[in-house]
Specification:
Oligomer: single chain
Strand order of the largest sheet: 1-7-6-5-4-3-2
Largest sheet: 7 strands, antiparallel
Distance between the termini: 39 Å
Number of strands: 7
Mean pLDDT: 91
Shape: globular
Radius of gyration: 15 Å
Low-confidence stretches: none
């Protein structure tokens, strides 16, 4: 894939709390800066949220509205949420990972995507923008969770 960007941050909170909040699609617009709305548009095969579920997001990125659908490819509550786009302007793979850390939780977001055409040409600019965005998202996540204490 053309873009492969990772950001991470240590949050002074337990992993279950951080992961529980960050992987709940109902909170997407609260801590993920570009997302305006998120809606569960397909439940997992066994019902609810899990592998196979789909979340439709409306976001703003580089001043443009983007509508896309992410399907849950892997979900390990308290540890991992891996999603791939099934509809949207470009291919995308988003992974949220959470690990215990001596000071709390190591939270990591990885975004891959944007194959071919315009995205290949714009990859350096897009990668910087995505890295900046997900770095701010992790700060926002920490702020959101500590203000709820």
């Amino acid at each position: 894939m053309t873009i492969d960007v990772t950001a991470q941050r240590v949050l002074a909170l337990p992993p279950d709390r951080v992961a529980g909040y960050a992987t709940d699609w109902r909170h997407d617009a609260e801590w993920t800066r570009g997302i305006r709305t998120a809606e569960l548009t397909r439940e997992a095969d066994g019902g609810g949220f899990g592998v196979g579920a789909e979340v439709t997001r409306t976001a703003r990125f580089l001043g443009r509205r983007i509508d896309y659908v992410l399907r849950v490819a892997a979900h390990e509550p308290g540890r991992l949420l891996d999603m791939v786009s099934v509809a949207g302007p470009f291919p995308m793979h988003v992974t949220y990972a959470f690990e215990p850390h001596p000071r709390g939780t190591l939270a990591r977001i990885r975004v891959r995507g944007g194959e071919g055409g315009f995205y290949r040409l714009a990859a350096p600019l897009l990668a910087r923008q995505v890295r900046s965005s997900i770095t701010k998202d992790l700060r926002s996540l920490e702020h959101r969770l500590t203000e709820r204490e």
